[in-house]
Sequence to fold (45 residues):
Amino acid sequence: MQTLEKTNYTAIKETLSNLYSHDERPWLVGFSGGKDISEEELRLV
Fold:
């Protein structure tokens, strides 16, 4: 899996921030990290 260059990441972040700020509708953002994330969450609890 390729990693995003910092400039690409920053551009995407700024674009999403701009879209979110100017949209009157509420956004529902979800993230599924898969098995690794679930194991880490269990370790924290």
